[in-house]
Amino acid sequence: MIERLALPLTLLAVALSVVIMAQFLGGPLQSERVAGGLSVLLDPPADAREPGGGIEHLDARSGLIDYNALDARLTALMDDPAMAGLAVGIVENGEITFARGYGETIKGSGEPVTLDTVFRWASLSKGVAATMVTLLAQEGRIDLDAPVSRYAPSLHLPGGGETRATVRNLLAHRLGIARNSYDNRLEDDEDPHALRSIMGALPAACPPGSCHNYQNVAFDAASEIVERVTGVSYEAATQARLFRPLGMASASLSRRGLQESASWARSHNRQGEEIEVVEPYYRIPAAGGMNGSILDLTLWMDAQMGDAPRVVPRAVVAQTQARVVRTPRENQRNRRYLGRLTDSWYGLGWRVYDYAGHRVISHRGAVRGYRAMIMFDPSLRSGVVVLSNSDSGRPFGIPIDFFDQLYRLPDGHWIESGAPLQPGQAAAPPPAPVEPVAPMIEGRRRPGDMRGSGRAS
Questions:
Q1: For residue 129, what are the contacts with CB-CB under 8 A and spacing of at least 6?
Q2: What is the pLDDT of residues 346-378, one digit of tens each?
């Protein structure tokens, strides 16, 4: 009798061991279908596809991220009256492991945010422009160390500085003028080309190339450079060279492109009231004109981690993400994340931080009722993208929560406490030192590498 039961009992024990091991390594053994697409919480079969276009590879998960807990925090975030809609995408090991929409495109409308809902990206546009200019430089059509006046005749700087400031200086905000020069006049509907032509009358903040002062109107000389070199509009050039080859199906660079999208998120103020989408920052597309869905932004991040080298060569990625200039003012802006984001630099269209001993690439965007965030660790090929159609700063805590888990840091509950510090309020204490996390095993890769008024900041 015992001998007859031995084999079935052995098989049962093996099966139970497999289930327990899967639970330990991969999280719960279930997946949840949601309005925004497929929110990957557990292991469905292989590659799960949704009508909205989401592609998730669960075998790429590190096992360090508690997606159920993250989803619960994001759901709770939407109870904040200031929040309208939200979309979040996560990549681990070069593959999409989480993508979901929350809330509504218009508060109170019942129209859900999905994976295909289009938002404004605000200043995440700068990384697109820097990539496009550096791509042309890689082809020998632009010299990044040539004077910016060679390619962008509309830009004039104090004391003829346009003949000394280089294209590289432009992309790193080292033009020698006060930060955000003439943003107020752009918001008053003045033409950006005309504004660049009179910047020579501004007082010099420093010699070109010797200090960092963040720009929008001046930075958009990058779109002029692309147009003069390619002979087509900036949007046509980026569509042909970047968006279409990467499969960024809803990406655009105009207010019309946003509003003609099948699903697009309206902007909302801090009271949760819908406000008008206005034109000014669309007039400087390289600095603040990008639109796209969370899937587009996730694909864009993946390409910036080197996973689409035939579209964005790794040499271009290396140049744009290299440290160019220290930005100590950014450390003050990040005081909420004390002990996390330190040693801030600016590259070409990208911010570069030390995150508790790890190098991360990032950028924030904010423009009139929209917020956007991208942060990734290129060495681990892992990161987070966030899009929101509200004026709340709380979504900026989402990547910090993710990286705390990835780097095994103490939980700072950054999503719950993501609002800016108030006067007299103490910042969170720094975390205890931890050992760096070893590089993770690579997940599967797609076939080949062709992947299907506030100021922009």
A1: 171, 219, 220, 222, 223, 226, 285, 286, 287, 349
A2: 999 999 999 999 999 999 999 999 999 999 999
In the chain, the amino acid numbered 19 is V
Q: Which of 147, 145, 124, 121 is nearest to 134 (CA)?
A: 145
Question: Is the CB of residue 330 less than 8 Å from the CB of residue 403?
Answer: no
CA atoms within 13 A on the CB side of 19: 8
Q: Which two tokens mark 449?
A: 């590498």
| Torsion on CA atoms 225, 454, 76, 96, rounded to nearest 10 | 0
Residue 447 has pLDDT above 60, yes or no: no
Q: Is the pLDDT of residue 114 over 70?
A: yes
Give percent of the chain with pLDDT exceeding 90: 75
Topology of the domain comprising 67-116+231-406: Beta-lactamase (3.40.710)
Judge if pTM exceeds 0.85. no
Is residue 254 within 8 A of residue 264, CB to CB? The reply is no
Task: Express each pLDDT in 400-420 by its tens digit.
Answer: 999 999 999 999 999 986 544
Please provide the average confidence, as pLDDT, over all residues in the chain.
Answer: 84
3-state SS of the chain is: CHHHHHHHHHHHHHHHHHHHHHHHHHCCCCCEEECCEEECCCCCCCEEECCCCCEEEHHHCCCCCCHHHHHHHHHHHCCCCCCCEEEEEEEECCEEEEEEEEEECCCCCCCECCCCCEEEEECCHHHHHHHHHHHHHHCCCCCCCCEHHHCCCCCCCHHHHHHCCEHHHHHCCCCCCCCCCCHHHHHCCCCHHHHHHCHHHCCCCCCCCCCCCCCCCCCCHHHHHHHHHHCCCHHHHHHHHHHHHHCCCCCECCHHHHHCCCCECCEECCCCCEECCCCHHHHCHHHHCEEEEHHHHHHHHHHHHHHCCCCCCHHHHHHHCCCCEECHHHHHHCHHHCCCEEEEEECCCCEEEEECCEEEEEEEEEECCEEEEEEEECCCCEEEEEEECCCCCHHHHHHHHHHHHHCCCCCCCCCCCCCCCCCCCCCCCCCCCCCCCCCCCCCCCCCCCCCCCCCCC
